[in-house]
Amino acid sequence: MARTLLLGLFSVDVLLKSNLTGGVNKVNPSAERRQPLDPKKLKALLEAVVQQHPGAKIPDIQTAINKRICELRHQEKKKTMDS
Question: Where's the BEN domain (predicted)?
């Protein structure tokens, strides 16, 4: 559910330039720091998922969000390389 809501709340362009908290790139610490996702939208997303799925844990939802963002970046990189 979180993965679907993510694309409803944020554009792909925003997701490609962001990560959950705006932290440093772990693969390349010298790379430009990504912007954090809008905290109000993120909070609303987390609350909606927990309300719909009471057993869901926030860290698991956050992991799913990060994975989806990584998948989008991978897809975009693949598109660029194929062109």
Answer: 1-76
CB-based contact 68:3 (threshold 8 Å):
yes
Instruction: Say yes or no to pLDDT of 59 above 90.
Output: yes
In the predicted model, what is the mean pLDDT of residues 63-68?
94
Domain boundaries of the chain, sorted by first residue: 2-21+37-82
Q: Is the pLDDT of residue 26 over 80?
A: no
Contact 70, 6 (CB under 8 A): no
What is the full DSSP assignment across 1-63?
-HHHHHHHHS-HHHHHTEESS----SS-TTSPPPEEPPHHHHHHHHHHHHHHSTT--HHHHHH
pTM of the model: 0.84
The CA distance from 23 to 34, in Å, is: 7
Token digits for 21? Answer: 């908290």
